[in-house]
Amino acid sequence: MVGTGGPVATFSVWDYVVFAVTILGAAGIGLFQAIRGRKESSSAEFLLGGRQMTAVPVAMSLTASFMSGITVIGTPAEAYQFGAAFWIFGISYTIMSTITAEIFVPLFYRLAITSAYEYLELRFSRPIRLIGTSMYIIQTALYTGLVIYAPALALNQITGLDLWGVLVATGLVCILYCSLGGLKAVIWTDVFQMGIMLAGFVAVIARGAVIRGGLGQIWEDAGQGGRLNAFDFDPNPLKRHTFWSIVIGGSIMWVSIYSINQSQVQRYISCKTLGHAKMSLYVNMVGLWVTVSLAVFSGLTMYSIYKNCDPLSNGDVTASDQLLPYLVMDILGDFPGIPGLFVAAAYSGTLSTVSSSINALVAVTVEDFIFPVWKNLTQKQISWLNMGLSIFFGGVCIGMAGVASMMGRVLQAALSIFGMISGPLLGLYLLGMLFRTSNSIGGLVGMVIGLVLTLWVGIGGQVYPPTADMTNPLPLTTAGCNNTMSQNYTTTSPWSTSASLTTPSNFRPDIADSWYSLSYVYLSLLGMLVTMVCGLLISAITGGCKQKKMNSDLFVRRSDLMCFRCTNKSEATDDKEKSSTDHHTGVHITADLDVKNTELEKSTKL
């Protein structure tokens, strides 16, 4: 009987067929784009789609690239255990989209950059650019390995799919269409995978509504179980999720992901006009709303079905990430092919993230490390270089998935580090974009201080996890289970216990309940503020920016903050400027900037 615990169905032949067809379909899109664009083999075509992409496919790709398999599986589990507070991130997405579209997109677009870290050299110095690029490569390679491994582990234990076979197959498919088709293949494949992800959520919600007697019953059960008490206005920064932590801290966290992360920047600067680039962010905002709403409601559906028999407490699953796959096999196992659709949805999220990462890693490696050293490469050499690097980074990501398999509970620590690095980097960009007095010394010292501080707090929070009164897990019970592996009991913190890292003596210092308990969504805000404040102070101490004339293109303009009222007029100017810069240097830069013109000419011509 559904919702009463015990073993569930396993994959049928049709499930394997649906899953395989989805993976092959993704690879087919990459091959199609490779064949279609075989005569357009320039670096700009491979890395930026020839800067001719339109808003809607880019928007769907922006949404899909960070809706990984971890999100598909983890967000419903979050709503199941902690309630619908995650829905408030919809406000954060709105703030993030507005800030990115009105501040960062115009600046990056008029500079016609390929690597987001080119700006750091134009504004500060080449060493800072290389440090920023290196930080991105390390965090992205590690994060991508985790993205491959985590969903594979959860689905392997529920569906019986061979773990290492799926890991290698995932990496090989991404390598195939990234190396052959470039950014166009990645974007159009993301569009396909986004549809599959949403279809997986809809299938879970629809079947759950049939079992429970309608969506209204699911909503009522969630309310009775305390899952709808989302608006907690407690200003305490130590509480994991409150209205203020999600809106303030969450907005900065998502700004750091969307505004300066190469995977995202590479997409919106591939648009053919500034208007399309801005519009892609706003359409992406709607896509994020839809995705998080379906994911959270899938979690509420899960609670409605398992409100009297928690599979985690009952021992049917061993980790919260396995809850949604278990639900799918429980309620959809009798429908051949539907569980395969869900697994395809989870892996579509994984494929989109991995392909985005590989293409972005190739872009920053070529632009930041190779072009400045080897300046006379032919177009054919560059094409082979791009494909070779796609294969190399794909192999690195598969290897990192193998490393992740030996990390155990350090997985969550590694995922937290990914967020910790973004905050200080965002602070460095804002320091350069908003303050003309900041200099290279201030920027570098401020970023290092911010990074050290966020790593200290974040790692401390993993070693000494916050207590249950800060994380607020909601009650779950096994009273209605038919197949209980232990005595019936009610638990309030299954997630926090399974995720905890404890010391042998269970020693807990006083700082663990204050500094280390800071909500994870505030880490990016902390890193950003510390970087900016320290950067300004050090810059002032070291004499500020010594260049008397600074290129205005490197700073936020008042006209950048106007959304679409002047789009038609500005697009004509932007197109004219863009075509001029593409032909000459690719950036509006004056002789006052300490950058070699030959390097700029080489990078942008290619």
Task: Please provide a written account of the structure.
The chain crosses the membrane at residues 16-35, 55-74, 86-109, 130-151, 163-183, 195-215, 242-260, 281-306, 384-404, 410-431, 443-464, 520-541. It is found in: Cell membrane. With 606 residues, the protein is mostly helical. The chain has a domain at 13-409: Up-down Bundle (Sodium/glucose cotransporter), CATH 1.20.1730. It is 68% helix and 1% strand. Helix 7 packs across helix 16 (379-404) and helix 7 (126-159) packs antiparallel against helix 17. The N and C termini lie far apart (62 Å).
What does the secondary structure layout of this molecule look like, with pairings?
Layout: H1 13-36, H2 43-48, H3 55-66, H4 69-82, H5 89-111, H6 118-123, H7 126-159, H8 163-212, H9 215-224, H10 243-260, H11 262-268, H12 274-306, H13 311-314, H14 323-332, H15 338-370, H16 379-404, H17 410-434, H18 440-463, H19 468-471, E1 476-477, E2 490-491, H20 494-498, H21 523-541, H22 567-583, H23 597-605
Antiparallel strand pairs: 1-2
Helix pairs in contact: 1-8, 1-15, 3-8, 3-11, 3-12, 3-15, 4-12, 4-15, 5-10, 5-12, 7-8, 7-15, 7-16, 7-17, 8-9, 8-12, 8-14, 8-15, 8-16, 9-12, 10-11, 10-17, 10-21, 11-15, 14-15, 15-16, 17-18, 17-21, 18-21
